[in-house]
Amino acid sequence: MAFVKTFTIPRSFEEEQQLSSASEVCPDSHCKLPPHQTTLRTKATIVTLRRLTKAAMSLVSCMLNEKALIYQLELALYEACSNVIRHAYTASDQGELQVSVEICPLEHITFEITDWGNGFDCYPVKLHTPLPEEEDGRGLLIIRGLADDLSICRKDGSTTLRMRFQIEEDRWRTCELLEEEAG
What we know:
The protein has helices at residues 13-21, 46-61, 67-88, 139-146, 175-182, and strands spanning 3-8, 36-43, 96-104, 108-115, 149-155, 158-166. It is α+β, with helices and mostly antiparallel strands. It has a six-stranded mixed sheet with strand order 1-2-3-4-6-5, with helices on one face. The protein starts with a strand and ends with a helix. The relative contact order is 0.17.
């Protein structure tokens, strides 16, 4: 059985400090945790983009033991969220951005990035390599290269990009590793 948490990303440094002082200690994935999901939601702005990805990655990074893997996940998440900010809304219509993080310890991590902005032509998603002089068009290619599964769905006025990362068991943190770090 999974549990779901919903959070709003703080809009100021003071709110961020209040939330971080009340945050939970990250549990150890090898202690047989059930799959769990956390949802983060904020305004889709360049200012909140880094806070949102940082908050989502803090949930993930405490479960994994490889910095390179954590960086790859963060890169894919940042690309997906920045695409929403750049393409889903106009400058005068800043809508919302939601990131759901599903962690299934010892198996996979899934990110779902949802917006309620301009539609995305999902069928079919055509990925092509942009010319070297082009400034845009690499985000989905980067995500596709990093994720094991990538899908985009437009439904009921929202667009959701779902990326799933299968993660080998030895790349998750262990009870022994956490005890060693604490000691």
